[in-house]
């Protein structure tokens, strides 16, 4: 039993503040990748919908102009 306590104690003391900082940096980096990907997809969808709206307006204007020319 004493050996187990010593092994657990040495494992806990082996985890330093530097290790925690590195783990936090990697966690923040992983979260940034996920958030960046989501924001990219959302912006792409908004841009695509805006382009579709502009295309519809332009088609309407062109059809109105063709109707007036007739």
UniProtKB/TrEMBL annotation:
Tell me which UniProt keywords the record has, alphabetically: Membrane, Transmembrane, Transmembrane helix
Asked if the Swiss-Prot or TrEMBL record annotates the protein with the keyword Membrane, the reply is: yes
Q: Does the keyword Membrane apply?
A: yes
| Domain of life of the source | Bacteria
Q: Give me the segments passing through the membrane.
A: 20-42
Q: What is this protein called?
A: DUF4083 domain-containing protein
